[in-house]
Design a protein that fits this description.
The structure holds two protein chains of two kinds. Chain A is of the alpha+beta class. Chain A contains nine helices and nine strands. Classes of the chains: A alpha+beta, B mainly alpha.
């Protein structure tokens, strides 16, 4: 039977655990994923290497056959402030293939699901009805969109057709600055694991508690907390 | 900043489902309170149930029209995409509010149809009519709440995740139902001699106005806290529809119309009653549309 003392202990434990998760830096989040002992495909984007050429955007479109105005990945040119100084930077955005994705639980037909074998979140276009509920549920604006060629929801799946054959995603292969690194973060000998352990990676909007599998090097705490969207106006459009 | 994925069709769905549920709720209450012993109350309950059921069916149709697979099926003559919505009925996902709603609306429509048929059994009240009325009242409350919970489940959304929205949508569904019943009563020429309808409608509208103001105030505070422009500022599209459509046309004007007939102790003309009902319905639609837009604007 649950007495008052035990209930209070449980409550306190729960509160501490919740607080720990809320303020967990990306490094600890990676450790938590690794403990599961499964293959976990992820991407690291080094912002100091991104020159905003958008070769990734073009190659993604060619690989996945999306229309020119529909993007699975995009590089937004945005700005941030430190004190009274404003500066511009490139921010590549794509589906974060989150560890606890908010899009999966809301899908009414089970079309959106997370693959057990590698952790990639996929949309089965033969099951998707196009209700857009997942688009609304995703806190990362614009990474999901309606593919006009299929009438169903589409998103980045780390080029599943390539990665399942041991190839790199199209955007990683064509990145002119070598900013995008892809691999299994559970494999401690992989390039991505080494890169993550040597740097201080950040994820976008950690407060949403979706544990993204896309990590950024060179992103400040303030920038990571900002809600960027693929539809954010580019600097030259303002 | 974000694209608007849920627009007029989804707003129409939320509105029609709410209005239908409201009408069925009032009809069910009339049966349960034995008021249908009076012939004109029986007619009101019967027609309100039929209209409520139709609104529920049309509303459900609106959400099907909004599916991009359905629109693709029409545009490209692709029958497999056209009928793709059947997938909703092939599974039950307890974590998805839309999946729960699919089955809830299906149940609500089935029982609403049975409730309508129960009026045909006998001229006076049959025994099972009360059972159907009770089920309909419960399902109507569930459907009216569900329309708010569907968007409220998006927990990172600053506007939709506001808990008071459930209360607002419930009250709005009830006032919509009252407006539908008022149109029915006016059509069958029943006069509200002792202002009982006007008084209860006024109380409902006043309560809704209060909750709507509390909601707008909380959205203002949430917007400030999150460093974004007030999502219901009158300068924005959503804010203009909210303040002019939902609050002024949908709540304040009907409230004033009701109060003038109560204070002057005059029986409202049928044209005035029509106007009152139409204003409430326009306001209820604007309320849902503005909430949908505001939630997608930041």
């Amino acid at each position: 039977m649950l007495d008052r003392r035990r209930a209070l202990k449980l409550l306190a434990g729960g509160a501490i655990a919740t607080t720990g998760v809320m303020f967990m830096p990306a490094g600890n989040a990676i450790a938590a994923i690794r403990q599961q002992g499964k293959k976990r495909l992820a991407m690291v984007i080094d912002l100091s290497r991104c020159n905003g050429c958008k070769a990734c955007v073009v190659s993604c479109g060619m690989e996945n056959g999306t229309k020119p105005d529909e993007h699975r990945t995009q590089v937004i040119q945005t700005s941030a402030e430190i004190g009274d100084k404003q500066y511009a930077f490139n921010l590549p955005i794509l589906c974060n293939n989150c560890e606890t994705p908010s899009c999966v639980s809301v899908c009414p037909t089970g079309a959106t699901f997370k693959r057990e074998e590698d952790g990639i979140v996929v949309v089965d276009s033969t099951l998707c009805i196009g209700c857009n509920y997942c688009i609304q549920a995703c806190p990362y604006g614009g990474v999901r969109f309606t593919n006009s060629a299929t009438g169903t929801v589409d998103k980045c799946n780390f080029c599943i057709q390539r990665t399942s054959r041991g190839l790199l995603p199209a955007c990683v292969e064509t990145c002119t600055g070598g900013a995008r690194v892809f691999g299994d973060i559970n494999d401690v000998n992989s390039e991505i694991s080494k890169l993550l352990s040597q740097s201080n990676p950040m994820v976008l909007q950690a407060s949403k508690q979706t544990s993204p599998n896309v990590f950024y090097i060179g992103l400040t705490q303030e920038e990571s907390n900002t809600a960027f969207s693929i539809h954010s106006p580019q600097l030259w459009q303002r | 900043m974000n694209e608007v994925h849920w627009g007029l069709l989804v707003a129409a769905y939320l509105f029609l489902a709410g209005a239908g549920a409201g009408a069925l709720f009032i009809s069910g209450c009339l049966v349960l309170s034995n008021k249908i012993q009076v012939p004109h109350h029986l007619d009101t309950a019967k027609i309100s149930a039929i209209v409520g059921t139709l609104l529920l069916i049309i509303g459900t149709g609106m959400i099907v029209f909004d599916l991009t697979s359905f629109q693709y099926g029409i545009a490209h003559g692709d029958m497999s995409k056209f009928f793709r919505f059947y997938r909703l009925f092939m599974t039950f996902e307890p974590s998805s509010m839309m999946s729960i709603g699919t089955w809830l609306l299906t149940l609500a429509i089935i029982f609403a149809l049975l409730f309508c048929l129960s009026f045909r059994a006998k001229a006076n009240q049959p025994g099972y009519s009360r059972a159907f009325a009770m089920i309909n009242v419960i399902l109507a409350i569930c459907v009216a709440s569900y329309t708010a919970l569907l968007i409220g489940d998006i927990n990172h959304n600053l506007v939709w995740s506001n808990s008071i929205l459930v209360v607002i949508f419930l009250l709005s569904a009830l006032s919509c139902g009252a407006a539908v019943v008022l149109i029915v009563k006016t059509r069958i020429k029943i006069t509200d001699v002792n202002h009982s309808f006007a008084k209860s409608d006024s109380a409902l509208l006043a309560l809704e106005l209060l909750t709507v103001c509390v909601f707008a105030y909380s959205i203002r505070n949430i917007s400030i806290f999150n460093g974004v422009d007030n999502l219901l500022a009158i300068s924005s599209d959503a804010g203009a529809i909210w303040w002019i459509g939902a609050v002024l046309i949908g709540l304040i004007m009907p409230l004033l119309l009701n109060l003038t007939s109560i204070i002057s102790k005059t029986v409202a003309s049928h044209s005035k009653e029509y106007l009152l009902a139409v204003l409430i319905l326009i306001g209820a639609f604007c309320l849902r549309y503005s909430v949908l837009l505001a939630g997608q604007y930041y």
